[in-house]
Design a protein that fits this description.
It comes from Aeromicrobium camelliae. Residues 132-179 form a coiled coil. InterPro entries: GAF (IPR003018), GAF-like_dom_sf (IPR029016), Sig_transdc_resp-reg_C-effctor (IPR016032), Tscrpt_reg_LuxR_C (IPR000792), WH-like_DNA-bd_sf (IPR036388). The longest helix has 44 residues, at 129-172. It is built from nine helices and six strands; from the N terminus they run αβββαβαββαααααα. Strands 3-2-1-6-5-4 form a six-stranded antiparallel beta sheet, sandwiched between helices. The chain has helices at 11-25, 63-71, 91-97, 129-172, 176-187, 204-214, 219-226, 230-243, 249-258; strands spanning 29-36, 39-46, 57-59, 75-77, 102-109, 112-120. It is of the alpha+beta class. β5 (102-109) and β6 form a beta hairpin. α4 runs antiparallel to α5 (176-187) and α6 (204-214) crosses α8.
């Protein structure tokens, strides 16, 4: 039984990692949780859940998951309920689930734990090295995916800011040749498709408004940056909503990015 994927962007990656852990190790249950300020919430499962484990919130420092998060290091136990190395605050839940041998590894991004991956069996085991290695491999792979994603998001944010600034600069230039050169430089930051495949065509001013809209500016702030009236901005936003078949400002940005009109 797979975990229910939420709006959390990490959720599908955690689910995929748990599926791979279970296939590689044949454990009874692979599960995971997201780390928050108060601890860990278990929401992701691959394998049959027979007890009250789903949705449990673990305090930092308690149980296996709470400890690996607090210490930022992986651990494996041959028999969870017998080990003296953790607090046994959650023994009743673990017993109800019928789990014995267990491994847990924190997922750490930017020196901060963001999730925990577990693998568990319903019998005690004399060796857990192979299981721990498999969970560790998936945790490290997930860390790399998230780091790469963060870097891409940072680049896109800077590219959007540069795109908006270049369009603002172009709007202030009287020299038509120089203005065209700056606009071409701005277009290099987008992934715009050829004209015959772009589903929408925006005016220059609509593109200016769109670039600032993507930066999260309000209508008033956009009006001030472009030195135009607020109602003029509203008209441009309304036109963008219609041309991009969007129902909100957020959707305008999403659709524009899909069309290659924004970085």
């Amino acid at each position: 039984m797979r975990g229910v994927t939420s709006a959390d962007p990490i959720a599908p990656r955690v689910d995929a990692a748990l599926s791979r852990v279970r296939r590689a190790t044949d454990v009874s249950l692979a599960f995971g949780g997201r780390v928050h300020e108060a601890g860990v919430t278990l929401r992701h499962f691959d394998g049959g859940v027979v007890g009250p484990l789903r949705g449990v919130r673990l305090d930092l420092g308690h149980g296996l998951g709470g400890r690996v998060v607090a210490q930022q290091r992986s651990l494996a136990f041959h028999d969870y309920v017998r080990t003296p190395l953790i607090t046994h605050k959650y023994d009743a839940i673990i017993r109800a689930e019928g789990l014995r041998a267990m491994a847990a590894v924190p997922v750490i991004v930017g020196r901060r734990p963001v999730a925990v991956l577990y693998a568990a069996l319903r019998t005690a085991q004399s060796q857990m090295d192979r299981v721990l290695d498999a969970v560790t491999h998936e945790a490290r792979a997930l860390e790399q995916e998230l780091v790469s994603e963060d870097a891409e998001q940072t680049w896109r944010s800077k590219a959007r800011d540069a795109h908006a600034e270049l369009r603002l600069l172009a709007a202030r230039l009287d020299d038509e040749e120089l203005r065209s050169a700056v606009l071409r430089a701005a277009d290099l930051l987008t992934e715009q498709a050829p004209d015959d495949t772009v589903p929408v065509h925006l005016t220059g001013r609509e593109q200016d408004v769109l670039a600032l809209l993507a930066g999260g500016l309000s209508n008033r702030a956009i009006a001030e940056r472009l030195d135009i009236g607020v109602y003029t901005v509203k008209d441009h936003v309304k036109s963008l909503l219609a041309k991009l078949d969007a129902s909100s400002r957020f959707e305008v940005v999403v659709q524009a990015r899909r069309a290659g009109l924004l970085p």
